[in-house]
Amino acid sequence: MNRVKQKHWLELVIESNVIDLDILSALFQNESNGSFLNNNKIHIFYNEKSKQIIDDQIIFLKNRFNFKWEWNIVQDEDWHLNWKANFNPVNIGSRITIVPSWDKNTLSDILIRIEPGRAFGTGHHQTTFLAIEFLEELIHNSKTVLDLGTGSGILSIASYFLGAKKVDSVEIDTDCIDNFRTNLKLNNLDDKINFFHYDVLKWKKFNYDIIVANINRNIILKLIPSFKSIKSKIILTGLLDTDETIVINECLKHNMKINKVKYKDEWIAMEIQSA
Question: In this predicted structure, what is the pLDDT of residue 5?
Fold first, then answer.
């Protein structure tokens, strides 16, 4: 991530329960220049001109979510050191380790380097972990993969390293594009993965062996009807365990079968396909 150089930053510290904190973390990222999670608190950093925008957002959200917050002033170097200190390697499955770009010491069968940025997907979140577990199980014999809502590109990168012969990545959020391209470059994959700046709900090409969508329940529910007549194995995540019933019912409504559901803390991922 390209950080703007300045002497100090405003740090917003939000404390909440696990579920609300994850949602709030996403809602407060738009104006941020970086963040990290520490225990049950998210630390988000802004330049001074963003404070009024964020204060207005706090007023809007404080009656909708249960959270405490405080503002601090931190020196640039202090933030940078804290940010690095709170990003550690993540082991997923039997082969993959995800490390920050500055880690030169970790060894693994498959090593994925990620530059933490505003795009989701550093491997620390449960849904990324579950999606990669599914990809490791399903990718073999040079499968083709479609990554809907690619974000940081971590699932696309994992797919390629696991043996996919073709990986197409779709993302509409412009904040993700630079982070995605940086992560491809870090892993020497500049010309190996195809990127499409496109709305996943308008995407019409589904002739892939595997489709992965780590988005959110509302988008997934809108995508499911598009999957009913295709032959792909589909990984759905970005879902809470409280979403399981409604998503399964929507799948069954469109003649999809549920092959497997994985759980990690309060998050789930499921593999589905046409019945």
Answer: 47
